Amino acid sequence: MLDQLNGQIVLITGASTGIGLEFTKIAAQYGARTLMIARDADRLEQSARTIVGTHAPRLFVADLSNPSEVEELIAKLDSAGLAPDMLINNAGAGASGDFAGDKWPKLDAMMRLNMNALARLSHWAAGRMVKKGRGAIINLSAAVATRPTPYFGAYAATKAFVTSLSQAMSAELKDKGVSVTVVHPPAVKTSFADANKADLHSTLVMKFPAVSATYVARAALKAALSGRRSIMVGPIAAVIMATAPIMPRSLDLAFMGLLFRGKRTSS
To answer: What pTM does this model have?
Structure first.
């Protein structure tokens, strides 16, 4: 099935580390022409040297939390004639802890990256895919998208946006040759949980078995190439999402708060 990627232009955001890098490696392995987007130029170049495939990846440096840099990226891609056959909106940021006590610039940057940049790139790519009559978009959401999550509330809310928009786009585009797949992984073995990112290491949720970035990327690519609207990756994600509609809200809030509070919020 992944052979369908051969010769396709695949654009990956957040491509220098974690799930994004695994998406790039797998796509390149199967003959795709990969476009790697990340904000850290040095790390992006280092990561690109690990990619093995028929086509060398093309690199674009952009901070997608900055709207002007998103527009500059789109202009560069258009001028180079690089309309993607597959867009993978993987870039994302996390912010954990007490919402009112967190720093607004950090929250604002996260929301602009997780929602605005994803929506803008999806809008841009979908328009070009519709003209061609084919294409696929993969949007990375999270298992917590279905549940209000104390101490991880703003992040979970951004992922609820991703899930809702993606499924609506899927319905709108399915008869135009374009698929939209939203992916809901649980905790993943990447640097996302580190203190300088989502800061989840002291939380109970990180005690659950995590899935690998490679597993998530491969499952997402297969789902997209099969035209699936939504997938849950791994049993933990399935349990989190399946129990959300049936658990009383007060109990649900207490349970999710217990999982995500962590020691960092006790001061």
So the answer is: 0.90
